[in-house]
Amino acid sequence: MEPDTHQTDPATPTAAQFATTHWSLVFAAGRGGSAEARQALAELCRIYWYPLYAYARHQGLACEAARDATQGFFEHLIEHELVASAEAARGQFRAFLLRCFQNFMASERARATRQKRGGGQPLLSLDAPGAEERFARELTDRRSPEVLYEHHWAVAVLDEAMRLLRREFTVQGRERTFNLLAPRLEGDRNGGSAADLATQLGTTEGTVRVMVHRLRRRYRDLLHGVVLRTVASPTEVLEEMQHLFQVLQSP
């Protein structure tokens, strides 16, 4: 029988670690803090750049201009102070980030900003072609740029939790198992019957049910940790998760 699915990758931060290594380090990075602080901010930028890119596109910027605006904005956050009133901005990171981006777009021209920082050598690698393909599929969505930003943010949170879960299975040499079981995260009717999964995994239906239960529990734990990175305190996690699921369920 394979190892329990709740075993974790030692390299994956726990929820408790997230509580002390993100908002506090983001503020530290804004004050010229440590390399660790800058790394924490860069990681948040890596995960959440697409919601801002899509927001810029919905505001009328062309593909290249939106890419440059997003790139320049994140480089500005990493290289310089976040905002003068950063302490007052404690709360959901998604709202803080959008406010800063709106201010950035209003005060600077994206191309000039990008050339001024690093001579055109980006600090972050943005998958602009992939982002544009995704954006093209959303052109018929008539919701406001702000509402779409919230939707993209929620998707980014779920995707990051899924990425971490997949990484744990891959590190354990169990990526095939993950690929077979992952559809069950969306319900028992997805991904084939328990009997079919048991046959493919060489185990029993009862074991498959236990594995799925553990998979869901581990995904919830990782999702909790991802959300915890973006709020000011652990007490806000439940409220933020409820908000994100409401956003995803809204028409």
Summarize the model shown.
By secondary structure, the chain is mainly alpha-helical. It has twelve helices and no strands.
Break the fold down into its secondary structure elements and pairings.
Blueprint: H1 15-21, H2 23-30, H3 35-58, H4 63-79, H5 93-107, H6 110-116, H7 128-136, H8 145-171, H9 175-181, H10 194-201, H11 205-228, H12 237-249
Helix pairs in contact: 1-11, 2-3, 3-4, 3-8, 4-6, 8-11, 8-12, 10-11
Which word captures the global form?
elongated
The largest pleated sheet is described as: none
> What amount of the residues lies in strands?
under 5%
Distance between the termini: 43 Å
C-alpha-based Rg, rounded: 20 Å
Integer average pLDDT: 78
Low-pLDDT stretches: 1-21
What can you see in these coordinates?
This protein has one domain. The chain contains twelve helices and no strands. It has helices at 15-21, 23-30, 35-58, 63-79, 93-107, 110-116, 128-136, 145-171, 175-181, 194-201, 205-228, 237-249. Helix 3 packs across helix 8 (145-171). It is elongated, with a radius of gyration of 20 Å. Mean pLDDT is 78; it is low at 1-21.
